[in-house]
Amino acid sequence: MTTILVTGGTGTLGRLVTERLRADGHEVRVLSRHAQPYAVDLRKGGPGLDAAVAGVDTIVHCASSPGGGDEEAAGHLLTAARNAGVRHLVYISIVGVDRVPFGYYKSKLAVERLIEKSGLGWTVLRTTQFHDLLVRVFGILSKSPVMLLPAGVKDQPIEVAEVADRLAELALGSPAGRVEDMGGPEVRTLDALARAYLAATGRRRLVVNVPLWGKAYRAFRSGGHLTPGRAVGKGTFGGYLGRRGGGRRGV
């Protein structure tokens, strides 16, 4: 039986990874800012982090914050992992972090580089955006009578459960470096995805595509965050919306 630490283990992805690993009979420690007994803020590190990694064979690093601090958090985690003799660190990243000059993507790429140079055995998996993320974004944008979307941008959302399955598989294997990307089964315009969301939630909104500017927008518009050649996901966005039951039951 392997002892595995999942950072961000109470989040959307980390919770599912934890469930899959435990179902396979492995001892799994969940690290997050509030999950006892391993309640640790990775941005601060400290003795709690050392205790969390002690005796751990593999770390699955799912903890992340679009608000910043990922590089600092990774630095603390990697130092603790080296000191504890951790064999393998698995990291979840995003397709296009090396092609799209968006702030959060730059941070994810920087963490990849830290892991590569850490001296630990490592595996990095990049995926496209989760269905859950699109629903959260569309939920915010649809609060207004006019739903504004960046013109000309497509997306390739993937089912988070499928990513969790892959991460659990990688965690139980040997360090593999950068593995093949995972993309959702369909590449669709944000306009089409937003209209599917509105139909599923019974909302009527005027959808307006707005041209933007800047290098990040141009990179998104050119599809730098997509991986059509690795459309390995099975669950579609429409299927996800159907399972949720739409806004009539509280999207």
UniProtKB/TrEMBL annotation:
<dbReference type="InterPro" id="IPR016040">
    <property type="entry name" value="NAD(P)-bd_dom"/>
</dbReference>
<feature type="domain" description="NAD(P)-binding">
    <location>
        <begin position="8"/>
        <end position="133"/>
    </location>
</feature>
<dbReference type="Pfam" id="PF13460">
    <property type="entry name" value="NAD_binding_10"/>
</dbReference>
<dbReference type="InterPro" id="IPR051604">
    <property type="entry name" value="Ergot_Alk_Oxidoreductase"/>
</dbReference>
<protein>
    <submittedName>
        <fullName>Nucleoside-diphosphate sugar epimerase</fullName>
    </submittedName>
</protein>
<dbReference type="InterPro" id="IPR036291">
    <property type="entry name" value="NAD(P)-bd_dom_sf"/>
</dbReference>
